[in-house]
From TrEMBL:
Gene3D superfamilies: PK beta-barrel domain-like. GO terms for molecular function: catalytic activity; molybdenum ion binding; pyridoxal phosphate binding. PROSITE patterns: MOSC. Pfam families: MOSC. InterPro entries: Benzoxazolinone_Detox_Enz, MoCF_Sase_C, Pyrv_Knase-like_insert_dom_sf. This is MOSC domain-containing protein YiiM. Residues 28-169 form the MOSC domain.
Length: 217
């Protein structure tokens, strides 16, 4: 399968989250066309640009397929009815971490005005997921199961709306699925050879290439 449907396009604003902390993890579906720019959707916000957003993490996709897993794990939270409940910008069924690779390119949106996007890295889970859902242990579960989601960089800007296509037009590093990169760098299972390969993988985000290089030494 090379084409999927965008079930929802979600954006958010930075809001008070935990004491003095703010977060834009709450993403709500948008109606109509949304611009896809070099730094992501317009408008969309990230509270901490050190770890979210920017050119290498412009768009986040957390598979809708995982929501059933979480219902079994934490109960039928109403948040799991929301397509952007994990901070996802793009809601898609039938596409998971083992099916996409670093450097895969996708056409996002309508044929005439869609964007060209490229898989850049897995998402590293943080405490904000547990705080939002009110359940401890979710981060550990993500690390154990690899249900992490991933980021895209934007190669060519465009626009997208719910109901548009997400079509893979090129395979990147076929040996490096998002799932494998996550296991190697986030779950800490990488061999010395894998770290060396990841440090040289040009389509992997510079931050994770540097992490691979540092852990190799």
């Amino acid at each position: 399968m090379t084409r999927w449907t965008i079930e929802a396009v979600c954006t958010g604003t930075a809001r008070p989250f935990n004491g003095t902390e703010t977060s834009a993890i709450t993403k709500r579906p948008r109606e109509g066309a949304v611009q896809v720019l070099a730094d992501g959707l317009a408008p969309d916000e990230q509270a901490d640009r050190r770890v979210h957003g920017g050119a290498q993490m412009a768009l986040h996709l957390y598979p809708l397929d995982h929501h059933a897993f979480w219902r079994d794990a934490i109960g039928d939270s109403p948040l799991l009815d929301e397509p952007g409940s994990f901070g996802s910008n793009l809601a898609v069924n039938g596409l998971t971490e083992d099916m996409v690779h670093i450097g895969d390119r996708f056409r996002l949106g309508p044929k005439t005005s869609g964007a060209l996007i490229e898989v850049s890295q897995p998402r590293q889970p943080c405490w904000k997921i547990e705080h939002r859902f009110g359940h401890k242990g979710m981060v550990a579960s993500i690390i154990r199961t690899g249900r992490c989601g991933w980021y895209f960089r934007v190669i060519e800007p465009g626009e997208v709306a719910a109901g548009d296509r997400l079509e893979r037009i090129a395979i990147g590093a076929a040996e490096w699925s998002v799932a494998r990169v996550f296991r190697a760098l986030m779950a800490g299972t990488a061999s010395a050879g894998e770290l060396a390969d990841l440090a040289e993988l040009s389509t992997l985000s510079p931050k994770l290439r540097a992490k691979a290089a540092a852990n190799r030494n």
